[in-house]
Here is the input.
Amino acid sequence: MYRFPALFYGTSVILNNKIKFDCNEILTGYLNSDTDGFREMLKQLNRNLDKLTMDTDMDYSFAEQRYDEVVYETQEIMSKLDKIWTSLPPYSLLLSKQEKSKKRLVACMKKHSNLFESEDENSASTIDFDNHVYQHAETKYGYIEFYPDGHILVNLRHFQPTRFLDEYLDKMDDVQLLLSDMYAFNNDLENVFYWYINWINSVLRVKDAYAPLLQEFIHVRHGYLTDTEQAEQIAAFLMKTKKESQLQTQKLVAASQFSLSYSVYTPEDSVPVLCKRYEFSDLDDFLYMDFFTGLEKNYLPKKCSNCGKWFLLRSGNYSDYCDNPLPDQPDRTCRDTSARKKYEDKCKTDPIWLTYNRAYKTHYARYMKGKMTQDELEIWGRKAIDLREQAISGEISYDDYYEQIRK
Here is the structure.
């Protein structure tokens, strides 16, 4: 429904020809998105598509009693999803405010109003509007306006499929025309539904495939993998999901519905660069291309070991902790606390660090009581660090280290 272009160069992705993201920055956002209720909405959409699809032998008792209710039940689901997908890139940058708020299912129904009941026993009334006389009929389905030039405007608020086969059985030309309209309606209906179904599947694939791929195969040690190691880990993931995956969203889907060309992009205050220009038909293809481009550059989403949120590693120093501020200490980040946590963990489990920590507390207490000067504490501190590193490397025994650091 919404194709979009994206420019790739270096470690950057350009959307809307001006908004720059780092590779895998958008994927990181989707990894942090809330998908509660998505699987149930997906099931409901699939069920309701079957209910709303028209057929020559459709159940008219259902059409009369429940069709309109299912339309608005489905539109409510789609409207909830609209608030989410239109707020996230790439679509947040591509759609107008009007397009973001559009009720797509209702618009599809109105487009094919000739397949729905529009008239009832209510009589038309003559209304004068700007000196132009036309007939206006309010019905339980909406309203109809008849103009002198023969133009008819039908605006429906409620949708009940017409019993067209019963009514036009003796008028084959009309039947064929209505059947053609019915097939066109079903095609438009599927396009609306599959947009939402495919988008939900794309986001669930982020959670079901990309997240475990990153956590269990890419971030297998405290550091970046070599190219060979990356290839081996990707192969292992693909083999595992081929054998064990029960859901399609647990598998990576290779990008297929896109076109490639080359384009010149000129960043602000910089020189023109030649970019690969992809045009994507869905989110799946974009995320796949973005992920492997970032993987090559070591631009990788990582789950913070402290707060549990995903953040983006941008090559350089590898870290298990993000730079997000702590909720109760906004001037400190998860990465700030990680160093202290590592130190405390070492002091609990490593006798060398435990001895160093105890000796430091003892000497600092002497300084606070005036039994050591600040210069003496600093000299001892440098000596203690040297002794600690020698003990860690095995240059001196633990017993020697224990005796000397306490002096």
